[in-house]
Design goal:
single chain, 7-stranded mixed sheet
Length: about 230
Amino acid sequence: MGISLYYQEKGNKEPLILLHGNGEDGSYFKNQIDYFSDRYRVIALDTRGHGKSPRGTEPFTIEQFACDLYDFMTSLEISNAVILGFSDGANIAMKFAMKYPSKVKALILNGGNLNPKGVKRVIQIPIEIGYQIARQFASKSPDAKKNAEILGLMVHEPDIGLDELSKITAPTLVICGRNDMIKTSHTKKIAEHIPNAKLAIIKGNHFIANKRYIIFNKEVEGFLQTIQ
């Protein structure tokens, strides 16, 4: 992979890897790192080009981030893990679980989407406008270039077909907020097409793991107890 991903770690039991959303870093999961650390070795990554992880020279894509995760797990000698992904982190987790099924013990997908059409238009339109503006200044400003890459992920990615979801073999929880920025119909389709996936829709918006963490953690904990 050519880069070393920054991560926070707490606990020493079986691995639980946390994948943050677009433009964020592992600190988004502060309320999960502490909560689950007595039962898991909780590892919160900073994705390539996010937080304290370097950008490197590889493509800035969901596919590449999934490959980075494989390399990261290999470097830490983690044979398989429970993976919890939020937003783009959920999209990375889906790609990873399809590509490397033996590396995933269980999957929690929070606020993921298969393609940009899964995002409500009231949210997506400003993202598309911001992306076009950032692109215009990308050659003149490093900050604009980085912003264009970050927003570009939400404009062009992910690109996962419903039929591909059958490749996910791990026990899966699909969880979202009732007022999520991802269309509820889209989230339900994801849950319906992953074999034996469980669906949980709880009170809150896209950021339930951070803002509604008590109920979020209990839903995740209840699910994990069923796969022990």
